[in-house]
Amino acid sequence: MKLQPDHLDVQSILGYGPGWVGLAHLGVAEKIEQSIVIGSRGEKFNWECKRFEDLTEAHFTLAAASKPELVIFGSGDRIRFAPPAFLRALMAQRIGFETMDTLAACRTYNILAGEGRRVIAALLIEPASD
Questions:
Q1: Range of the domain at 56
Q2: With 128 labelled, which of 5, 75, 92, 94 sits at a CA distance of 20 to 30 A?
Q3: Which CATH number is 82's domain given?
Q4: Known InterPro entries for this protein (predicted)?
């Protein structure tokens, strides 16, 4: 699905499909095929997990390190909730946290980033099934 953000002056998500997400920043577009964390202030790093079952507390602690006001967790093609214990670092820093499927997380990230919010999207990109 193609997503069209209003502003491209922040890192934006251009599209999403099974096994990939399209990103754009400063006029450069790229297709990402692994889980990733991106942020409205230019943060971008691989999130080393291929399946929801691979997630640990360390994954969410890493997302909290950028000190956003909100982390949006895209849990794959359906909504799945991380155990509350995984969210300790976020709670300790009073960082907001929302869980949604990855497509909804992409749309929500674009809206909030376009509004100038300090937001992180932690996107679980599972391999496309054949």
A1: 12-123
A2: 5
A3: 3.40.1230.10
A4: MTH938-like_sf, NDUFAF3/AAMDC
